[in-house]
Amino acid sequence: MTLAFPNSSRSYDRTRNAVRFVGHDGMFEVAFLIEAEALGKHGGGLLSETDCLTAFDSSLASIHRAACKAYSRGRKTLCILKAVDFRG
Fold first, then answer.
1. Burial, 81: exposed, middle or buried (Cβ in 10 Å; 0-12, 13-18, 19+)?
2. Domain over 3-86 is classified CATH 3.30.160.140
3. Which of 3, 7, 18, 61 has the smallest number of Cβ neighbours within 10 A?
4. In terms of Cα–Cα distance, which of 65, 82, 85, 84 is closest to 17?
5. DSSP code per residue over the chain
6. Cβ 81 vs Cβ 70: under 8 Å
7. Distance of CA 16 to the CA centre of its chain
8. Rg of the chain, C-alpha, whole Å
9. 59 to each of 22, 27, 28, 74, how far by Cα in Å?
10. Closest by alpha carbon to 52, among 5, 6, 15, 4?
11. Domain spans of the chain?
12. What is the pTM of this model?
């Protein structure tokens, strides 16, 4: 099946300084986390919740592409996207 993102909801995970979102592989839900570091340049400091969510919303297409690529490497129920997932 193809991974799809029919639900546009996302939330900030303060503990992990990351944004959570979900995809669906047929009837199976797949959880994703994208680390704040992957969401933008921030001079080494932590991004705020607002910064993370804004960066997520503005990069949604590339995030979904990276999520599909990461999921295809090994179908898991949780995939964590890191900055390296967006390089070259």
1. buried
2. yes
3. 61
4. 82
5. --EE-----EEEETTTTEEEEEEEETTEEEEEEEEGGGG---TTSPPPHHHHHHHHHHTHHHHHHHHHHHHHTS--SEEEE-GGGG--
6. yes
7. 12
8. 12
9. 15, 26, 24, 23
10. 15
11. 3-86
12. 0.87
Q: What is the pLDDT of residues 9-58, one digit of tens each?
A: 999 999 999 999 999 999 999 999 999 999 876 455 578 899 999 999 99
Structure tokens of 81?
Answer: 């996207």
The span from the CA of 47 to the CA of 40, in Å, is 9
Residue in this structure with the two tokens 């390089």, named with its chain if needed: 87
